[in-house]
Amino acid sequence: MRIDHVLKVVLMTASGAVMLSVSAMAAPLQSVAGVAGEVPALTEKVWCRYGPCYDNGAGVGGLVGGLIGGAIAAAAATAAAQQEAAAAQQHAASCAQRYRSYDPASNTYAAKDGRRYPCQ
User: How far is CA 66 from CA 33, 77, 78, 79, in A?
Assistant: First the structure.
């Protein structure tokens, strides 16, 4: 087959597809009441185990949304916990630097009077 013959076939096919789509777009719209009243004769009611089946697309969307939301919340909680741990570690290092008698378990230091005070 020659290239010009193949090109003609491709152009004719493409122009036919365009013509069909244009005629479908130019068709007049039917009224909403007319469309709603026409139910195909081959409709089949589907029953599930305990009654009629419904589209559970919203349920699946809710599940996916819940999983994504949960992942975001877990990541935020983890980030907050890491920041809190870093702040506590920084506080303990600061108190240990200021007071030689600092006890990190109780967050207190011993004063000259012998009593323990919280490090702030």
Answer: 38, 16, 18, 20
The pair of three-digit structure tokens given for residue 96, joined into one six-digit string: 């240990």
User: 118: closest CA among 103, 104, 105, 108?
Assistant: 108
- In the chain, what is the straight-line distance between the N-terminal and C-terminal CA atoms, in Å? 90
**Torsion sign (Cα): 78, 79, 80, 83:** positive
* In-domain check, residue 102: yes
Q: Residue 5 falls within a domain, yes or no?
A: no
Whether pLDDT at 28 is above 60: no
Q: Give the tens place of pLDDT for each residue, 104-119.
A: 889 899 988 989 999 8
Residue ranges making up the domain that contains 93: 77-119
Query: How many folded domains does the chain comprise?
Result: 1
Look at residue 40 and tell me if it is in a domain: no
Overall pTM > 0.70: no
